[in-house]
Amino acid sequence: MTASPDYLVILFVTTAGTNGARLGSDERELLQLLWKVVDLRTKKLGHPHDVLVRPDHPELTAECQEVTKVDVESLAQAPSLEQALRQFNQSVSNELNIGVGTSFCFCTDGQLHIRQVLHPETSKKNILLPECFYSFFDLRKEFKKCCPGSPDISKLDVAAMTEYLNLDKNSSELAYGASRVEDMGNIILTLISEPYNHRFSDPERVNYKFESGPCSKMELVDDNAVIRARGLPWQSSDQDIAKFFKGLNIAKGGAALCLNAQGRRNGEALVRFVNEEHRDLALQRHKHHMGNRYIEVYKATGEDFLKIAGGTSNEVAQFLSKENQVIVRMRGLPFNVTTEEVLAFFGQHCPVTGGKEGVLFVTYPDSRPTGDAFVLFACEEYAQNALKKHKDLLGRRYIELFRSTAAEVQQVLNRDCIRLRGLPYAATIEDILDFLGEFSTDIRTHGVHMVLNHQGRPSGDAFIQMKSADRAFLAAQKCHKKTMKDRYIEVFQCSAEEMNFVLMGGTLNRNGLSPPPCKLPCKFCMGLANTVCCVRVGVGAAFLILILFLGKVSDGGGKIRPLHLKSAAACVHFSLWLWITMIEELLRNSSCFSSNRLAFPFLKQAGQGEPCQWKK
């Protein structure tokens, strides 16, 4: 509970698009700022104020013009949003005569005016909002507290509250926003008077910034508080996600960027909000823009979030135990690099938090370095200075630097899987469960994955997802080289990232990770293969026609043409055929065709694949 403020400032906004229950859902700009002061001590209303705001794109929808009665011509001389906010702050300060001990708080009709309009738009336009905009009273919630017998909050609006209190509605001569502000003032005066004597305390809060932090797989996550965002720029960070959802409260460590099988970001993220109300408001931002890209927003579950953000590794938990740190990922490090060299690479202008404890190297299951590391920085300034060193040299190698998240660290380093190698080709899931014995109860639901080769047959490998990294470690220690059907089986601890890498077609061996083959051949290989098919068919048909023609045409004496003509045609055909065969061999040596074993004739979907890597 907090002390009741001296004044309430009724705040109401309209936009150039949809207003009312869907305010802010169409991403249209703020058009009108209206307010009125309520003195809670003297129970008096101040004068109404109305400021038009000139949007960057002054196109108004027909609905907006009909509801607000604002036309494009009247906006030409209106101030910009930043100027209007400055004018608003000055007007409120003068009217309240704010001094030491004087306090005020906003009061709005629902959540949308503050959370879905003001905060998102000022964030996009890089306008810094004053501290007073980070707390407000939701009149609908306050009304429900004061009048428990009133309709449900989802059905409450100014008209419903006015009707419940039997108050007179304002004259229809007032404009849309002005009439709402006038009615809200009368409702507040009624609530703070006899017989209700309502006290405004404990306002709604808007988070100043996103707080990073670890998440445990054992943590309970509400299914109704998680969304999946899709279409993110690959370089986006958790702070960019928090900026996109500005105005809504994301739970601590609640932004988890998803990685693909190669450990790269796939343009998706799972976001956990503090409650269902904020999740529902986030869903209204479906297809809002982050830069030039629109972002799709869908419902997700707590299990989805824990798969990405949850972790059980003590090493990772200790690394992430320092709160509110900015994480940077390093890629391309020399395998023999030391912590001291990493610290020297960043230098004095971007000191690493905790010195050596702020650097975490990524290793393979056998403890060999991968060339990646995560580094902690205490503030945004240090992190930005560090990112300026992107592609600077460390030794003879250039180093790539990216912003990272706690969830990404968990995904890369959380070794809660084991790999079985050397299984009999006829081994079944039941055989694997018997082999693991007591550890079979620690396997996650649907956590056994058999690895197939390129012909779709068992490869002798399998991956098992365990409930914790500790149990995965014990299983690898106790089951390593146990026998199954007279064969000893090798058992290694690994991460979910490495498991996904292999299941997508890549290889994991002592030489490191080899990327999976292209799902579709690249444009060059596909075009070359199609050309080979066409030329082969064409040359074959031409050769048959030539042989038939030479076989029937005779010279003037009625004799067949000399045999050397047929021999020459055969030589030409043989040369073309040899040339085509050499191209086919070249194609077979490309990753597009060798790994997928695609047949050359009648290839389809040309040009849809990624660039291939030619074998040396």
Automatic annotation (TrEMBL):
Entry GO MF terms: RNA binding
SMART domains: RRM
Record GO biological process: mRNA processing; RNA splicing
Keywords linked to the UniProt accession: Membrane, mRNA processing, mRNA splicing, Nucleus, Repeat, RNA-binding, Transmembrane, Transmembrane helix
Broad class of where this protein is predominantly found: nucleus
Domain RRM: 225-302, 326-406
Localisation: Nucleus
UniProt cross-references to InterPro entries, sorted A to Z: ESRP, ESRP1_RRM1, Nucleotide-bd_a/b_plait_sf, RBD_domain_sf, RNaseH-like_sf, RNaseH_sf, RRM_dom
TM annotation in the entry: 528-551
Any Gene Ontology CC annotation: nucleus
UniProt superkingdom: Eukaryota
PROSITE patterns: RRM
PANTHER family tied to this protein: HETEROGENEOUS NUCLEAR RIBONUCLEOPROTEIN-RELATED
Similarity remark: Belongs to the ESRP family.
Name of the protein: Epithelial splicing regulatory protein 1
Annotated source species: Meleagris gallopavo
Phylogenetic placement of the source organism: Eukaryota, Metazoa, Chordata, Craniata, Vertebrata
Annotated gene: ESRP1
